[in-house]
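User: Quick sanity check before I run a bigger batch. Here is a single chain. Can you write out its predicted 3D structure?
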Amino acid sequence: MLILAIDTSGQSGGITLAEAGKGSFRVIESAAIAGGTFSAQLIPTLAALLKKHGYGVKDLGGFAAASGPGSFTGLRVGLSAIKGLAETLHKPITTVSVLEALASLADRDGTIASAIDAGRKEVFLGLYKKADGALLKQREELLTQQDFLATLATERPAVIITSDPALAEIAASSHSAVVVVTAPGSEVIARIGAIKLFAGETVSVEALDANYLRRSDAEIFFKGNR
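Assistant: Done. Predicted structure follows.
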């Protein structure tokens, strides 16, 4: 199956073409997309990547989308592109949480805490159980830094994994096993997405949505002025 993975959750993003089967996975090529250009560059970048490797849009067999948490605008662009392609081609879609992608990089089993700086002295936290390479989500939530540390003290994860060095320093104040990694991109989304697609863990075009964890400023402002 030829899989397209899109990650537009961060300040920069990317797409990955991969070939996958049951028990096999190979990245064909990934291409980066600069932040602020997602809406203008995503489709042209995809078209160029397909042409380079001798494929057409109709060769795509499935889609994997980074669903968040992350940039409101960026996530909407990526998910909208996948919605349009999947609806036209009638191909399956799966979603991958950015926190799940981060947790997948942990090199040990047990409870894995993946953490992303959410700004405003808040943290996006994901708690997963990892066994034999498989991840089972316990929960994902937005916490204050204080509540983040309290949760770590209560849950006592085997490892805390983050792509933010400053957040790692905060976590290290209450936990010894803290690992800093490069933020996972579209290649990790493709790898996890391939497993989900072959397991039948898909979502319909209508149900495809972002996992923001936080309301947008517009929603907060509107509610506060009702």
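The first strand starts at residue 2 and ends at 7.

User: Great, the batch can go ahead then.
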